[in-house]
User: Fold this.
Amino acid sequence: MHLTCPLWVRRIPKIYRNNDPFYLRNLYLQFSFLFRGRSSRCFRLAEQRVIKAFQHMNAMRAVRKDRFKQLCDERIDAACAQHGIPGKMLIDGLGRMNIQLNRKMLQQLAIYEPYSFKSLTDLVKQYHSELGIVPPNAEPPAPVVTRGLLQSPIVPGNRKFYE
Amino acid sequence: MSRQMLPRVFLSQPLQNGVSRYTCQLKRITLKFCKFRPNSLGAREFIENGDFLEFARANPQVACYLKPRRNRPPVLQAEFANGSVQLARIDSFPAEFVRRWFWLMRGRSGDDLLPLHENLRSFHPSVQGVWTPFTFGRSVGLGDLPDSRHRPMSPSATELIQQLHRLQSARMS
Assistant:
């Protein structure tokens, strides 16, 4: 029942509220507020669209993470390509050197701090050249003084070698 | 749908509070509790331990009220400079939790709690300068047009006419 304004003041106990169809329909219509056409106004159409919208919301949670990861990969790849290494090599190389930067931060650096990103690519190139791996189409990196530390980075396990 | 129904906002403070000067946005805090019921035990202990007075003395800019209400669950009501009122249900909370809620309200701005686009916000996100194709010299986007790698989806008018000509001369011969 939809009460008129003077009667709206009366407080309906929740046990009766649940039995009244108005309240359930109103709930669906609240969710369908910004939908297109009659799906936003008529309950029988809104119910279907709202249920489908909830399904989409649930399904998109996993997909959103994947898509963001793809976007980050694309951006890192493009930024690395300018410096002559593949994006995967950067992520792998940083991991091997125990530089803990995830994809999200790397793409932020590539956009907002391009010189820092370049120094990271130089580091990765240096690491690979010390191992004897030459990245394809790469320019020689800016001189990076490593003192052999790239090959055995300080990680919790080998800290005793540096004390 | 979730983005429409529950819009996201960027981090912001009312009138850029904190940039040059910080003003506590909490103006009044009221602790409503019952003197007898067990779910108000934490609230009563909070008062009796002296934590409420400690909060009131440490924050002279906040008006602190106690409101004993018979047979009602305990509630914390915080009123802010922008006029908003926030309620925290402290039903059966230990005294330590009540204390934490007090200090949490003290730090809030009174804006609605909405999902954020990002947990950080900066008007100057770049220190070194945002990347442009010219940042590392003109090494990106170089090339001459037409490029053989760019294959058009449909044949151009010239190519259509050339095809027609080839068909025609094949038919003639």
Q: What stands out?
A: Chain A has seven helices and no strands. The interface with chain B takes residues 31, 33-34, 50, 53-54, 56-57, 79, 82-83, 110-116, 118 of chain A (CB under 8 Å). Residues 17 and 23 of chain A are 7 Å apart (CA to CA). The mean pLDDT of chain A is 85.
